């Protein structure tokens, strides 16, 4: 791969099959994707330029004795459902699309001061938080 020139664009594939073609510079804002695409990493993604998100699971295990927080309905909901993984939510096309939007937003404003907040729908906050943690953004 050392003698092969890297493509300007990469593809991020959600776990429900949507493909997002974004600039490599924007993709490299996310630490996890940057490491996947690093030509010295020997990852398949580095040579193909395609990163599939459906291969990860992010555990949100709550022990049975974990007390619900009275003001946090999301925590109570996750406990009640005994949700072992949020891969269906975090790697979904809707979440990955918003992640890609943020990668471009971050790249555009990386040296700016007083950057306005990016619009994030309240119903996506938990999934985006988990995705941001996984993708290291």
Brief digest:
The chain has 137 residues and is mainly α. It has seven helices and three strands, in the order E-E-H-H-H-E-H-H-H-H.
**Unreliable parts:** 58-62, 69-76, 79-87
Tell me the structural class: mainly alpha
Largest sheet: 3 strands, mixed
Order of helices and strands: EEHHHEHHHH
Shape: globular
Per DSSP, what share of the residues sits in E-state strands of 2 or more residues?
5-15%
For the CA atoms, what is the radius of gyration? 17 Å
Helix content: 40-55%
Distance N terminus to C terminus? Answer: 27 Å
Q: In order across it, which strands form the biggest sheet?
A: 2-1-3
Q: State mean pLDDT (0 to 100 scale).
A: 79
Per DSSP E runs of 2 or more residues, the count of β-strands stands at 3
How many helical elements? 7
């Amino acid at each position: 791969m050392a003698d092969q020139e890297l493509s300007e664009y990469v593809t991020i594939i959600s776990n429900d099959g949507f493909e997002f073609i974004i600039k490599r510079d924007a993709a490299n804002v996310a630490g996890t994707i940057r490491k996947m695409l690093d030509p010295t990493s020997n990852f398949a993604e580095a040579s193909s330029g395609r990163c599939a998100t459906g291969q990860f699971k992010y555990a949100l295990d709550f022990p049975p004795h974990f007390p619900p927080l009275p003001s946090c309905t999301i925590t109570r909901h996750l406990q009640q459902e005994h949700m072992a993984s949020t891969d269906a939510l975090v790697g979904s096309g809707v979440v990955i699309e918003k992640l890609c939007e943020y990668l471009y937003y971050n790249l555009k404003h990386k040296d700016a001061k007083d950057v306005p907040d990016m619009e994030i729908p309240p119903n996506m906050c938990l999934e985006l938080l988990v995705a941001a943690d996984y993708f290291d953004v």
